[in-house]
Amino acid sequence: MTNAAPQFRTVWRPPFPVDLARTLDPLARGPYDPCVQREKSGTVWRATRTPLGPSSTRFLSTNDGIEIESYGPGAEWSVQNAPELLGANDDPSGFQPKGKLAELHRRNPGIRITRTKAVYEAALRSVCEQLVTGREAQQSFSRMTKKWGERAPGPRELWLPPAPEVTAKLAYFDLRPMGLEMKRAGAVRAIGKRAKMIEATIDLPLAEA
After folding, report:
1. What is the greatest pairwise CA distance in the chain?
2. Do the beta carbons of residue 70 and residue 8 sit within 8 Å?
3. Would you state the pLDDT for residue 209?
4. How far apart are the C-alpha atoms of 49 and 106, rounded to whole Å?
5. Average model confidence (pLDDT) across the chain
């Protein structure tokens, strides 16, 4: 843990409502996710691996906009990509809900669609969530992160998910105590080995419906 000042900070003033907590809530797997912390003040912290290295980033909504502060080698990348994380590219112009969905949309204008660009990390979490309860999935991811991940830079006790080069080498007998049976253990190794290819999907165009 360090009390050093953040390497990069900014205030983003979105041109639309942003419910910070509810927009970022899907990034946390349960209340004790080691990579995400939420405070009563409304502050949200998130640790992740970026193309420039690890970072931990603080988000807080204020009357002036959304304060963003980031620590670590990936701090500049995290600050630059924060608007997209908070829904800057979420275009609702073609969204025309009806019935109850329309009412929910009207009552919750600040919920945006987040984009992390952390495809490997999302895949790792998704593997943990297959064929088990939510609680079991949260425990598996947390155990893996605290055993093979590393502490994130910054003043908060946040953890980075295990790096791809680490998960690529894990054997079934390593992952079984984490609550992963053979099929999911194999998937964890596979995404570790193919992490570069997985991350390359970030820039692929979306298929048309």
Report:
1. 51
2. yes
3. 41
4. 35
5. 92
